[in-house]
């Protein structure tokens, strides 16, 4: 039991250590403002990583999320700007479209037995291609609704401010927590990641689960794109390049096994927070260059993968086969 | 007996492995020369020929070659020259994919090796062969890191190489101190933009790499071992193949190929840009290998077909330019072509297509 939770505790300890290191070195680091900024700056990554967790738990991978973020941002900006739609109507159209896109990838993976890696790679090119086709330039968003949302939020003491997008992100985390750990769909996902053949034999609706899984990942990515558009007040086809890798890294640092079947939503949240804290620390320091964050994240990735390997060594031997 | 039994057992428990078994048999009986060699080459070559045909229809001058200043110029030479870095990556990637792995780090390795070259050349007191040698060694070292993680630590290839993909670009930026490092060295620049016997030097480098690798893999048992490990690592271990050593070797070779690609890219722009050198080229290389007919599950590879895959991708982007379509269509068309190629590789889809065709025929016959 403790073994299962160990990676989670280590990530948690690292988050605390990172925060402690920042707080001891810089004035103003240990404030609610820093914490709430951490959430709002990483909101879109966190929402993307939630969907990625689900996909990785099932033993798959979704490389298309970064492009879906860009595409939904561009679509929102265009629908609200030139087409004069109300933002809520635009979102109501974009989210189902994203779900259909994800379901399509899921169907290809399920029915044609294609590899998730290459199918979602094609999806990545497709979404990015459609986004650049629709608009190559950054489209600015100006709408009273966006201003209203920007002003809405919870004022906290100590300079903290939880904006509407942060609140939405927290709500989505709670929703995914329940969906993954306390729902039938969640247990299907774990079963699929553990062993898809056994899952099939046990009566898990493998096809439905796979398709739903990729649909929800794309839908969460589209939500992240909308959150990103609130953050930047624009939609840009070349935005969020490489976010899929950040999301995968956060999921792995959060202790989820890439082979599927083992991991926690809360681990992903901690993984995103840790990556955000490293960036915040570098910003506070000022003398450290940005490339250190990449190197540190790479080292952390290696550390967690090696740790997982060590922990799972005893029961890994029976899996065998191809690495 | 033991090997056959193991292979059969694994087939029995997993019907999806039937293809792999077939590949294993072919590899066993005729290394590197499968029974359907002709048809395997047919589809990629037909695709390439069709693309070239479209180009000629769009631009009658497409096949024209001019001799100027001791080298050939023309759209075809352009395609060859531009494909060189990805072709080198694809050669290494073929081997990695043949073992059932994947190497996401090659783009970052290109950036690191480019940074090494640029900084050494800037120091000035390093000889030309030493710079090249150190860059290749750096690439091999990166490959060693990947290979060690995959084979001896048993980490999933996607994750193991993701580490270097993320950290590698950081290392390259660290070497360059965040700047774009430029240098003046005509000898080195010739590797990217020079020519030899009428053809650009990068094209010669690709041909040389292809020749050496092909000899190494098909004239020794190494290629067969790689395919065996890709089919079933466990079974090949029982056969006495050092599966871990083989995996380590393929990542080493991929690192070396990435180093060469990085050298060409750096020499071409006479500078090292840690942010953009080789960015996303790993995806192009993987794509080329898949278009060349290799399965990502491993078990077979063909270097010439991977290079044809690269030429298809490069010709496709040239076609889009020649056709006058704005370059923003580039990604979309690429995505659709990948999807088409993927679907054609799926047996179910081929069967559906066949039944659709025969249905049409039957109806046609009745009428």
From TrEMBL, chain B:
Entry annotated with the keyword NAD: no
Residue spans crossing the bilayer: 40-58, 79-98, 130-155, 196-217, 248-267, 279-299, 306-325, 331-349
GO cellular component terms, A-Z: plasma membrane
Superkingdom of origin organism: Bacteria
Keyword line: Cell membrane, Membrane, Transmembrane, Transmembrane helix
InterPro entries to which the protein is assigned, alphabetical: ABC_transp_permease
UniProt key word Transcription: no
Family note: Belongs to the binding-protein-dependent transport system permease family. AraH/RbsC subfamily.
UniProt-recorded name of the protein: ABC transporter permease
Species assigned in the record: Rheinheimera tangshanensis
Species classification: Bacteria, Pseudomonadati, Pseudomonadota, Gammaproteobacteria, Chromatiales
């Amino acid at each position: 039991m403790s073994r299962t939770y160990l990676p989670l505790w280590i990530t948690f300890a690292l988050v605390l250590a990172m925060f402690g290191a920042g707080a001891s070195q810089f004035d103003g680091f240990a404030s609610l403002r820093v914490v709430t900024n951490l959430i709002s700056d990483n909101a879109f990554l966190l929402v993307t990583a939630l969907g990625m967790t689900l996909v990785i738990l099932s033993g798959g991978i979704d490389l298309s999320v970064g492009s879906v973020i860009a595409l939904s941002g561009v679509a929102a900006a265009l629908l609200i700007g030139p087409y004069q739609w109300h933002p809520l109507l635009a979102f109501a159209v974009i989210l189902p479209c994203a779900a259909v896109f994800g379901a399509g990838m899921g169907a290809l993976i399920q029915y044609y037995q294609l590899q998730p890696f290459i199918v979602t790679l094609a999806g990545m090119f497709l979404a990015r291609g459609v986004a650049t086709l629709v608009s190559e330039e950054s489209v600015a968003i100006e709408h009273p609704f966006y201003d209203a949302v920007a002003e809405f939020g919870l004022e906290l003491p100590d300079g903290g401010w939880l904006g509407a997008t942060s609140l939405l992100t927290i709500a989505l985390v709670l929703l995914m927590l329940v969906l993954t750990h306390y729902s039938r769909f969640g247990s299907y996902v774990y079963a699929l990641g553990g062993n898809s053949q056994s899952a099939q034999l046990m009566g898990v609706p493998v096809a439905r689960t796979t398709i739903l899984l990729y649909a929800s990942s794309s839908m969460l990515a589209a939500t992240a794109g909308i959150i990103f558009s609130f953050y930047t007040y624009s939609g840009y086809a070349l935005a969020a390049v490489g976010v899929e890798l950040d999301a995968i890294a956060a999921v792995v640092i959060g202790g989820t096994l890439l082979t599927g079947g083992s991991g926690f939503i809360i681990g992903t949240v901690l993984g995103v927070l840790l990556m955000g804290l490293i960036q915040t620390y570098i910003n506070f320091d000022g003398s450290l260059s940005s490339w250190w964050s990449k190197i540190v994240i790479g080292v952390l990735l290696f550390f967690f993968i090696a740790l997982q390997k060590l922990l799972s060594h005893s029961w890994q031997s029976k899996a065998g086969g191809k690495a | 007996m033991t090997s056959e039994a193991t292979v059969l057992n694994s087939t029995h428990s997993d019907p999806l492995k039937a293809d792999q078994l077939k590949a294993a048999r072919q590899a066993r009986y005729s290394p590197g020369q499968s029974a359907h060699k002709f048809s395997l080459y047919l589809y990629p070559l037909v695709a390439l020929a069709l693309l070239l045909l479209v180009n000629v229809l769009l631009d009658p001058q497409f096949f024209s070659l001019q001799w100027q200043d001791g080298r050939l110029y023309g759209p075809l030479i352009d395609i060859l020259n531009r494909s060189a870095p990805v072709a080198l990556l694809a050669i290494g990637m073929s081997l990695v994919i043949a073992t059932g792995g994947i190497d996401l780090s090659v783009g970052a390795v290109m950036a690191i090796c480019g940074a090494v070259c640029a900084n050494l050349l800037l120091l000035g007191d390093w000889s030309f062969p030493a710079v090249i040698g150190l860059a290749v060694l750096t690439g091999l070292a990166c490959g060693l890191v990947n290979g060690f993680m995959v084979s001896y630590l048993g980490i999933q290839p996607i994750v193991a190489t993701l580490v270097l993909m993320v950290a590698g670009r950081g290392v390259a930026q660290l070497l360059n101190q965040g700047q774009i490092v430029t240098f003046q060295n005509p000898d080195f620049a010739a590797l990217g933009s020079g020519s030899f016997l009428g053809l650009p030097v990068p094209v010669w480098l690709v041909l040389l790499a292809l020749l050496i690798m092909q000899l190494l893999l098909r004239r020794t048992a190494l290629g067969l071992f790689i395919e065996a490990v890709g089919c079933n690592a466990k079974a090949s271990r029982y056969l006495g193949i050092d599966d871990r050593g083989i995996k380590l070797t393929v990542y080493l070779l991929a690192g070396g190929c990435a180093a060469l690609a990085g050298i060409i890219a750096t020499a071409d722009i006479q500078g090292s840009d840690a942010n953009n050198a080789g960015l996303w080229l790993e995806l192009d290389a993987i794509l080329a290998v898949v278009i060349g007919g290799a399965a990502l599950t491993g078990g077979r590879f063909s270097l010439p077909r991977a290079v044809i895959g690269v030429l298809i991708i490069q010709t496709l982007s040239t076609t889009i330019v020649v056709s006058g379509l704005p370059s923003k269509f580039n990604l979309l068309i690429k995505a659709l072509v990948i999807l088409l190629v993927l679907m054609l590789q799926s047996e179910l889809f081929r069967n559906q297509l066949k039944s659709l065709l025969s249905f049409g025929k039957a109806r046609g016959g009745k009428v």
